[in-house]
């Protein structure tokens, strides 16, 4: 049998016990790769292995940043890039067809509002469940780093009615963001209308991450008008998840 050709991209992703992609920031890039049909292979890394692996590849974290996935190797040029936005910019310039608009006024508004609102819901509902799909090594790292900032156990975020209070507090804002997502619904199912943009991959990457971690939280999210429609429109680009 002939050897398979080397893919254009090596994608460094976050490992979990389900053996599929679940990081929302990596999914933004995976969706872009799938949509553009760029050949790639995945290297899954445990949390404690991310920094040493990326350092060994020669990547340098900025002063305000840290070593994180996604990271890619562009095999034809032996170029290494870290962080989702620089990677997206590189992919768009190197593989311009089909195009993925990276910025728009509507997309920026959705992303800015979603980071604040959905961030709260994911922090309270998703993070304490995420630990359940990690290996023992990654669980130890995850707990140590998150609980040091929290000052208590991750699971305490789910105690009593704490989680429900967070959802109640973001309900109206989630609805408003969902309406923004539907601004161009007359032209198509995506944020900008007929074709996906990076804003769609930002939204769907978060939703897919939630779905892998906990189906119940995912179902809760897509009941809000706007979210489910964009997720369904991006289903063709969610098929490759490993």
TrEMBL record:
Gene3D superfamilies: 1.20.1050.10, Glutaredoxin. It comes from the Eukaryota. Pfam families: GST_C_7, GST_N_2. Residues 13-99 form the GST N-terminal domain. CDD domains: GST_N_etherase_LigE. InterPro entries: Glutathione-S-Trfase_C_sf (IPR036282), Glutathione_S-Trfase_N (IPR004045), GST_UstS-like_C (IPR054416), Thioredoxin-like_sf (IPR036249). This is GST N-terminal domain-containing protein. It comes from Penicillium nordicum.
């Amino acid at each position: 049998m002939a050897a398979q050709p080397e893919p254009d991209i090596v994608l460094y992703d976050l490992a979990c016990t389900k053996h599929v992609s679940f990081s929302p920031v990596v999914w933004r890039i995976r969706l872009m790769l799938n949509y553009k049909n760029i050949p790639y292979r995945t290297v899954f890394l445990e949390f404690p292995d991310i920094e040493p692996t990326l350092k060994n590849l020669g990547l340098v974290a900025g002063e305000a940043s840290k070593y994180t996935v996604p990271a890619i190797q562009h095999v034809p040029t032996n170029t290494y890039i870290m962080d989702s936005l620089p990677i997206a910019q590189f992919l768009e310039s190197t593989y311009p067809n089909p195009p993925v608009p990276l910025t728009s006024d509507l997309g920026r508004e959705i992303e800015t509002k979603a980071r604040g609102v959905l961030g709260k819901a994911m922090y309270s509902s998703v993070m304490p469940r995420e630990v359940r799909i990690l290996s023992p090594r990654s669980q130890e790292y995850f707990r140590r780093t998150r609980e040091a900032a929290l000052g208590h156990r991750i699971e305490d975020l789910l105690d009593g009615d704490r989680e429900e209070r967070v959802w109640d507090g973001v309900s109206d804002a989630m609805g408003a963001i969902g309406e923004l997502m539907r601004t161009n619904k007359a032209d198509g199912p995506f944020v900008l209308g007929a074709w996906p943009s990076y804003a769609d991959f930002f939204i769907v990457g978060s939703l897919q991450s939630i779905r892998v971690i906990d189906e119940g939280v995912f179902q809760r999210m897509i009941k809000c008008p706007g979210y489910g429609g964009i997720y369904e429109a991006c289903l063709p680009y969610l098929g490759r998840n490993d």
